[in-house]
Structures are given as structure tokens and as C-alpha cells.
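::Amino acid chain::
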Amino acid sequence: MLAVLSPGQGSQKPGFLTPWLDLPGTEARLRWWSALAGVDLVHLGTEADADEIKDTARTQPLLVAAALLAAEHLPMYDVAVTAGHSVGELGAAALAGVLPAEAAITLAGVRGREMAAACALEPTGMAAVLGGDPDEVLAAITAHGLHPANRNGAGQIVAAGALDALDKLAAEPPAKARITRLKVAGAFHTPYMAPAEAALAGVAAGITPAEPARILLSNLDGSAVNHGREMVQRLVRQVTAPVRWDLCMRTLADLGVTGVVELPPAGTLAGLLKRELKATGGPEIVTLNTPDDLPAARDLIARHSGLRGHEPVVQFRVVVSPAAGTFEPTADLAEGADLRTGQVIGHIATRQGLVEVTAHDSGLLTEWLAHHDDPVAPGQPLARIGGQV
């Protein structure tokens, strides 16, 4: 099984889009997207220095544009799973078919501007806590009045909040942990970003999303999302909610992903995956940074898609599990039943409680793919709706 990953803020490098502009149509596409995002993506991706592309308002649409540009040169119909880190989730949602590329770019522009504005309201920041016992690290973050903004796995938790509280955490680090301050404008993915979330929600409400055409993982809890509208709501909520990349990586492992392509600017997510999954070997990974990397990425896709070049099953006609647990189908709901959009067809019993499974489309329940008390992983097919797809 193959996954394509879209990186988040902090992965950008000066000039990283320069080689992509040699491909036909790329510059014109970037100029169109620049009009939507309100920033000059051509300049930012080629001539801008590190300080200029560190600006949140500029970086976020630049990263989404880079991921979408590179993905246009890949056989995405062979890809089963998409996921993104923080703002990269907008790119992942577009690659899964939930958002048009133009909507993803526009939302990234709004998100970046509004988060930058929220950062200016009061002095806040972020710091990476590396190593230490995770429970002790989280306790220390809470004790200092900070928030665990990112849980990236591989022994990395990012604390965010007031600058004086970050200073105190650095002066009193948890046992066997070291603190590294991050060069960011403010406390992303915390309540400090509430004004940005509200502004983004106002724009996102005007979007009509589609249902995911492949398994799409959410930073909120690492689960696969079945419904386009739910994904848009999660993308908005993510502005103030912690990024649970650790849970996304766990889901990739649970799904049995064997091949990963990280889109440009690639390297950060590949490094986290390698460290987190080194005990089990982990998937084969290609970091796609320049057009010269495209042959290796295409080769990996051909070898790991399991589809041998044919069009895949259209996955948006299959209801997948939103979480790991035990499947409990709705009593007396038999194959052949007529379903309506949003109808509850079962639950997943998890350690945190019951999670509803709903039909994302109307049609016939043609086949149960999981049964009562079956253990299921996030993204695992549970039922088929509407006939052969």
C-alpha cells in the first residue's frame, strides 16, 4: 500500500521551487495560484531568502502549492493514502479529492495571513522538547501553563505558549529531555490562534467539498475521514488543536503502508517516519525534492501500489473505519438495505468510547466488509455502498 505525504511549515528552503519552473506550465500555474493566495509564489519559491519564506503568511500557501505542483507529475490514481502535517493537510485534502487545488491554495492564503495576525496580538512561541518520558514531558508542559501543540512521535513533543513560560520550561526541563526553541512567529495549534480559526471558518463555510477518493488521515486524531464536510471542519479546527502526527504515523503502520512519497520540500516527515518505525523496518521512502527525483517516485509507486498500473477501486464508495477498535454493525441492517446519506451503520468500540460510522452516500448496502466484533484498523473498509465500484 502506498501513501503520499505533504509536509508542513518549517520544511521550506530558499529556492526549493526553482528546478520545478523548468517544467512546462508550472510558472503559469504558480502565477494563477499567487492571485488566489495573495502572495507571489514564483518569487517566494525561487528568489526569496530564508527570512522572507519564514513569514507564516507567505510560507503556508507556498508549501501547499509546492506539494500540489509535484503531485501533478505523479500517477496519483495508484495512491491509496494521503496525509499532511499541519498546513500540509490542505494539500493532502486536495490530493484526496476533497478540495479543488484552487480552494486549497485560497484557504492556505487565508490561514497563513490570519495565523500571522493572531501571532502579533501577544508574544508567544514554541519549543521542541526532545527525549524524556512522554508522560513526564506532557505533565511539565501543562505545569508551566503551556500547550502540547505538536506530538510528532520519535521522541518529539512541541510546547507552545507565552514566552516567559517557555523560558521557565527551558530552565527546568523534564528528566532526560532537552529544549530547543523554534524560530516561529507564535503559538500555533493552541487557543492563542482562536481569531485565526474564526476567520478561516468564515471562508471555509463557502466551500462545497467532495467525498475523499482515497484514504485521508486527519491530524486531529490520526483517523481516516469519510466525509468531505467533516474534513473541512477538521481543517478549520486544526488551527487551534494539537497536531497528532504521532497518531497519523501509527495509522500508516496499522494500514500496512509499504511505500511513502514525501512531496517537496521533502525530508522532515521522512525523518520522523524512519525514527518512529525503525524497530519494524518501516516503509520504503522516496523524498521528492526536484524533478530529478520523479523517476524514483514513479518507480516506488509502481512497485507498492499493488494495482499494476490499473485504475484503482474508487474508494469513496467504500465506508472505512475512522478509528482502531472493534466493529459493531447496526442491528438488523442487512445487505441489500437502502441507505441514506449520514445514516449510522455501526460503531467502532475504542478505548475512548464508541465512534459512529455513517454512510457518506445514499444507495444500497451491497456488502459488509467487516462483521460484528471484528478488530479493525483506521482506514479499513467496513462496507460497500451502491454496487460494484
Summary: The chain is about 35% helix and 20% strand. The first strand starts at residue 2 and ends at 6. Residues 307-316 have pLDDT under 50 and may be disordered. The longest helix spans residues 101-119.
